[in-house]
Amino acid sequence: xxxxxxGGGGREHALAWKCAQSPRVGQVFVAPGNAGTARxxxxxxVEIAAGDLNALVEVAVREDxxxxxxxxxxxxxxxxxxxxxxxxxxxxxxxxxxxxxxxSKAYTKEFLKRxxxxxxxxxxxxxxxxxxAFVLAQRLPLVVxxxxxxxxxxxxxxxxxxAAIAAADGMLAGEFGAAGSTIVIxxxxxxxxxxxxxxxxxxxVIPLATSQDHKRRDDGDRGPNTGxxxxxxxxxxxxxxxxxxxxxxxxxxxxxxLRLDGTPYTGFLYxxxxxxxxxxxxVLEFNCRLGDPETQPILMRLESDLVDLCxxxxxxxxxxxxxxxxxxxxxxxxxxxxxYPERYRTGDAISGLDTAAAxxxxxxxxxxxxxxxxxxxxxGRVLCAVGLGANVGAAQRQAYxxxxxxxxxxxxxxxxxGYRAIERERVAQ
Length: 429
Ligand code: AMP
What we know:
The chain is α+β, with helices and mostly antiparallel strands. Helix content is 31%, strand content 28%. The strands form five sheets. It has a five-stranded parallel β-sheet. A five-stranded antiparallel β-sheet has the order 12-13-16-20-17.
């Protein structure tokens, strides 16, 4: 079989690495990939941007690709699955209509409300309907969100009414382009955040191993928001009971609602949840794809064949599949370029990759490129070093051994990835 992975980050390196392990797979193409996918056995890069749907369809037809898995949301929201399907190519992910769950927050809030799925109270505005008096009447803090895709930057948590009005005005004035022409203002929820990811095929669903990520740049979950500085699996907060509750109160009604609305969902579905003190799983957001960096530790633990899983979903036979997970914990530490998440450096030579390759665990690449004999930084998040261990604490030790073997100028990473889970493990002992 030939597989195509769309994207070039750490998630896509992990997808390519995992697909290449399948005995049924002869070749994995990654568009555009990175230095890590370029060096992976059975994997090669094709120089096509993840958003170039025409070129992607063309290469899938030319190379006779059997299965395409799409990493990032952009091409899914733009309709890559519809395009591939029309060209007779199997592509795992939601249709353009189903991917609106990530593409429009206003649509998703209305969907959640209509189907009785728990989420924060909210109101939606455009430039012509926005009323600062509404903001002034709300309790603080308030959360202001751009409706469309804004590369993770379109959410502002506001401690004052003035800040909320300013954030709303900025978005409606075009700060995020068309993504902010509609905004959602919602109530601030307290609790602990959990990511819950499933593989779905219309009415069939398989939850993946649980995971949790760290969004803030600095230790102690402080500093600016990022795409994610590390993640681990399993997430001890997601007990058997909570998992059942999330399935019953969020995942199943969401898939049912999408079917009823005429936009059945096939693909990975990622629910960003805020677990309230009473255990209510409130939906913060949906992503129509796997998370990055959650995918890296999750796939480290997947023992069964990912190609079989995606193929079964496309055949609507997920009920015949039961994925096997390594009982060990996995933990990934993101190594980022100096300056990230603001303006960051690129073009620094990375040393120690060969030393790290000889250690246990796995280093997934994100923003890297090959230049001659060297691997250079080429993005904000550069690597994700993943360790495995009997518990999250042991996985953390293995991950940081990899991190300590690798260096470049002004590298930055958190030193406490997994600390909440490790504290839970300590208390449980
Ligand atoms: P989103 O893209 O909607 O998930 O928002 C990004 C981040 O903002 C989330 O991961 C949360 O940390 C935070 N956030 C979003 N909405 C809320 C909310 N209603 N209450 C508290 N925090 C929120």
